[in-house]
Amino acid sequence: MELAVGSTNPVKIDAVERTLERYEPTVIAVGVDSGVDEQPRSIAETVTGAENRARRALAATDADYGVGLEGGVARLEGVPGLSLIMWGAVTDGDRTERGGGPTLRLPESVAREVSDGAELGPVMDDLLGTENVAQREGAAGALTGGLTDRTRALGDAVATSFGPFVTEYYDTDR
Ligand SMILES: O=P(O)(O)OP(=O)(O)OP(=O)(O)OC[C@H]1O[C@@H](n2cnc3c(O)ncnc32)[C@H](O)[C@@H]1O
Ligand SMILES: [Mg+2]
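^ Those are the sequences you sent over. The predicted structure of the assembly is below.
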């Protein structure tokens, strides 16, 4: 199975390779524009970024599927504080499906800087004294003490957005 992933971030490529391992994936990294802000600030903007990445990556290749992964922040109804969210989108060129990954509350100091306009990646690097944590364990790893990491967290978004293509349960939706 050939998959075009709309990013060159190694954690996103790894997340797709590992999650879809049983399909023996060939993954092509395609640097595309997400078409949304570098730091999406709502569920809708995050999902749109994932969709754009998936469609643009597929359009640039003859892969079977395009996959888009996007990280964002949002204030969610019923959940205090600012949340880190992540969404996936998968397209076969005809149909597009979306699915989410885990949600984490950001520490207040991080939430404040991001709310003031900063991008999460650099703010996390400042807090942790790291460089490019977004390309390694990510906020998901740091904020859980390693109970999960960004590859696994994004892998969940890959699984939930890919599911409708590999199970029969959604067939009646079409
Ligand atoms: O090259 P791309 O694919 O754009 O990879 P990225 O790391 O920038 O990932 P996103 O654009 O999807 O994420 C939007 C912003 O949120 C940040 N971000 C998202 N998840 C993160 C995480 O787990 N740890 C640190 N920063 C994260 C990221 O660094 C960006 O500033
Ligand atoms: Mg980015």
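Residues 43-59 form the longest helix (17 residues). The chain has one domain: 2-173.

Shout if you want it in another format.
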